[in-house]
Specification:
alpha/beta, 8 strands, globular
Length: 221
């Protein structure tokens, strides 16, 4: 039996002048993905706590908040209080002690816990944290900007992470973020991913519900 998938449209590709309407247009997705960038860990600068608070008032969708920021422990509580259902931090963004502290803050605020890997980071980096994680995110682009080309070499990392998850914490989800579209999602799914962030492949289409359906269909062709 084919495993069910979770789609997480990324508002990084939405129209912020009509963000509420754009969110409503992707309500058939399971999650809503929110990219937070600080201009330091990654070169781009996006949104902060007030926008997450506004999104939370607008929708009851599961908010998957991706913190692409340095020392995420400093902001984890604020984003959890703002309404994030799940927070993901980059292992490259702090020392192991700092990452552990950020995960502890998530637990204190009843937020689901995730870690993310840039393409430079090996799959085994998740092992100290994996038993308690709800999601591992494998970046299939270099984080910082939307609309990038999917990095096929990262499928090896997806496969390795899947093996670790199956052995240590089968309940943990495996999310792929970057370059996901109808022509790339099947390969990521076959490699073991079950959750997919898609930005321009959804918000770049006039019919967002149809775009989401096309992504689902591509996994099961």
């Amino acid at each position: 039996m084919a495993q069910p998938i979770t789609l997480a449209p990324s508002i990084l590709s939405a129209d912020f002048c009509r963000l509420g309407a754009d969110i409503a247009a992707v309500s058939s997705a399971e999650w809503l993905h929110v990219d937070v960038m600080d201009g330091r860990f990654v070169p781009n600068l996006t949104i902060g706590v007030p926008v997450v608070e506004s999104i939370r008032r607008t929708t009851d969708m599961f908010l998957d908040v991706h913190l692409m920021i340095e020392k995420p422990v400093d902001m984890a509580a604020a984003f959890a209080k703002a309404g994030a259902d799940q927070l993901t931090v980059h292992l490259e963004a702090d020392t192991p002690r700092g990452i552990r502290a950020a995960l502890d803050v998530m637990s204190e605020h009843d937020a689901k816990k995730g870690v993310a890997l840039r393409p430079i980071t090996k799959a085994e980096a998740i092992l100290p944290y994996l038993p308690e994680l709800d999601v591992v995110v494998v970046m299939t682009v270099e984080p910082g900007f939307g609309g990038q080309k999917f990095m096929d070499a990262q499928l090896d990392t997806v496969r390795a992470v899947r093996r670790y998850i199956d052995r240590i914490n089968p309940a943990c989800r495996l999310e792929v973020d970057g370059g996901i579209a109808v022509d790339t999602i099947a390969a990521a799914y076959a490699a073991g991913a079950d959750t997919f962030v898609a930005g321009s492949a959804v918000f770049g289409k006039p019919d967002r519900a149809a775009a989401l359906a096309a992504l689902r269909g591509a996994c099961h062709e």
